[in-house]
Design a protein that fits this description.
Elements lengths: L11 E5 L4 H13 L4 E4 L9 H7 L8 E4 L2 H7 L5 E4 L5 E2 L10 E4 L8 H6 L4 E3 L12 H15 L4
Parallel strand pairs: 1-2, 1-6, 2-3, 4-6, 4-7, 5-7
Helix pairs in contact: 1-2, 1-5
Length: about 160
């Protein structure tokens, strides 16, 4: 999965310890379509050759610019110049209220637990959420949230 160099300087998608193969596969397909780099932070809840992961990504895996990182600290240290946003239901700002920049890292948490609370507490001004009207609904699907936030960031940057 070497992928192609992105033509635009898109924000990049980061999945912190993803657990559900079809979600990651769907997000990989989104990233392939938008020539957006995809970063996966270990541990992963699946193997990269998982059938459900491959099926959700269809035959677009060669188009995915994929990097797997041993931990979040390593990724952030490798990209000190990049801005980053913590996408969480506990975000202090709505996804459309922040100003995204080229190369920003859009960091999404794992399906069962989200992002580490201690990380969010250190940078509350960098936390972003999608509004939900019904308090009986605990969360949105990870792939849905990734698509909404990535499209908004690209819309702001006029990358269409």
């Amino acid at each position: 999965m070497k992928g192609h160099q992105n033509v635009t300087v898109s924000p990049e998608v980061v999945l912190f310890e993803p657990e559900i193969p079809p979600n990651t596969g769907t997000i990989a397909r989104l990233c392939a379509a938008l020539r957006t780099p995809l970063h996966l932070i270990e541990p992963l809840g699946f193997h990269l050759d998982d059938t459900n992961l491959r099926r959700a990504g269809l035959d677009y895996w060669p188009e995915v610019e994929l990097r797997v990182w041993p931990d979040l600290a390593t990724l952030l240290a490798s990209r000190p110049e990049a801005g980053h946003w913590w996408i969480t239901k506990h975000g202090h700002q709505r996804y459309h209220e922040v100003t995204y920049a080229p190369g920003d890292l859009l960091i999404f948490g794992k399906e069962s637990a989200g992002l580490p609370p201690e990380r969010l507490a250190t940078e509350p001004q960098r936390t972003v959420s999608l509004p939900m009207d019904n308090p009986a609904v605990r969360s949105l699907n990870l792939a849905t949230v990734a698509a909404v936030v990535l499209y908004e960031a690209r819309r702001q940057l006029r990358l269409f």
